[in-house]
Amino acid sequence: MPRNHCSVCGAVSEQPSAPAVEPAFAPDLDTRPGEPLRSTLPTWIQSCPACGYAAPDLSYAAEGVADWVRTSEYQALPIGFERHSWLLEQLGHLADAGWIALQAAWNHEDGGQAEDARRCRRRAIRLFQASKAAGHDFLDTPAEELALAVDLLRRLGEFEGAAETVRVALQEEDLPEMIDRILRFQTALIQRRDTGRHSLDELMPRPESGTRVNLG
């Protein structure tokens, strides 16, 4: 593994590097990429073994991060994604913090930590809501944002909130066909009280051309 210098404490450590791979399969409804990219998730965040700084690249830290890393609140957080999400929130990057919280949920799911995954999904929702309240989007269009919110709520078992979000989303003007299909598929899942993971492959046959369909 390559060695990297921590920009917070200066320690040198071996850190994983994400391989350059592309997903060969459709993403989940919450945008998690398909394999083989899905399996590279553990390499997306580096963690300094000396001070605990967590970031995609330890060699860079924004101004003020070193002070946050030394706080007891930061040090009490799980190593990796959750620490990086917390730092982004302190820096005011609420949408980015929400995305890293969602990635933390994926990571916990892979480790069989269902309650931790739920906690991180709730955090992602809160951060996305805060981002919107501050006037910043977390996806390209309101329709895409609503579609993601539906999946987050459904995965948490908040079926009434998910169903209401579907109703709001279906009222969007010029709703893309793919988003419409996702929302109607979500409606069926909500009616079944389904909290499981589902992918876009369940909506449509894979294009013969190999073109991927992405939400986000």
Task: Briefly summarize what is shown.
The protein is mainly α and 216 residues long. It contains eight helices and four strands; from the N terminus they run E-E-E-E-H-H-H-H-H-H-H-H. The strands form two sheets. Strands 1-2 form a two-stranded antiparallel sheet.
Key features?
two-stranded antiparallel sheet, disordered C terminus, 4 strands, mainly alpha, 8 helices, two-stranded antiparallel ribbon, 45% helix, 216 residues
Kindly describe this structure.
This protein is mainly alpha-helical and about 220 residues long. The chain has 8 helices and 4 strands, in the order E-E-E-E-H-H-H-H-H-H-H-H. It has helices at about 65-70, 70-75, 80-90, 95-110, 115-135, 140-155, 160-170, 175-190; strands at about 5, 10-15, 45, 55. The strands form 2 sheets. It has a two-stranded antiparallel ribbon. A two-stranded antiparallel sheet has the order 3-4. A hairpin with a 6-residue loop joins strand 1 and strand 2. Helix 5 packs antiparallel against helix 6 (about 140-155), helix 6 packs antiparallel against helix 7 (about 160-170) and helix 6 packs parallel to helix 8. The protein starts with a strand and ends in a 25-residue tail after the last helix. Mean pLDDT is about 95; it is low at about 205-215.
Arithmetic mean pLDDT? 93
Q: Main sheet: which strands, in order across?
A: 1-2
What structural class should be given to the helix and strand makeup? mainly alpha
Report Rg. Answer: 18 Å
| Major sheet attributes | 2 strands, antiparallel
Number of helical runs?
A: 8
Distance between the termini: 31 Å
Helix content: 40-55%
Low-confidence stretches: 206-216
**Large-scale geometry:** globular
Tell me the number of strands. 4
Beta-strand fraction estimate: under 5%
Helix and strand string, N-terminal first?
A: EEEEHHHHHHHH
